[in-house]
Amino acid sequence: MEDYRSRVPWAREPSLKEKAREVGVDFDRLIRLLGEGRSDAEMAADFGVPPPVVAHLRQHFERYGLASIVGQD
Fold it and tell me: Which end of the chain, N or C, is more open, meaning fewer C-beta atoms within 10 Å of its C-beta?
């Protein structure tokens, strides 16, 4: 039997919360507006950022969820 050591999960990239904070977007509000089905243009206008910024945050959420933690068993 092989000896396996316990390994903690590790992150591949910053969490959605960190990314939102970096660009000045309120994370809780971002999640709420995503849940309401708001468009990137609507959210960008609300947050005062360009639409591609919101599009990037949306893509991160759709691909990784709130965080991009990879676990090891």
Answer: N
The pairing of beta strand 10-11 with beta strand 69-70? antiparallel
In sequence order, what are the beta bridge partners of 28?
A: none
Coil, strand, or helix at residue 41?
helix
36-48: per-residue pLDDT in tens? Answer: 999 999 999 999 9
Q: Are 47 and 24 contacting, i.e. CB atoms less than 8 angstroms apart?
A: yes
57 in Cβ contact with 30 (< 8 Å)? yes
Q: Any idea how long the chain is? A: 73
Kindly tell me the burial class for residue 53, based on how many C-beta atoms sit within 10 Å of its own C-beta (0-12, 13-18, 19 or more): buried
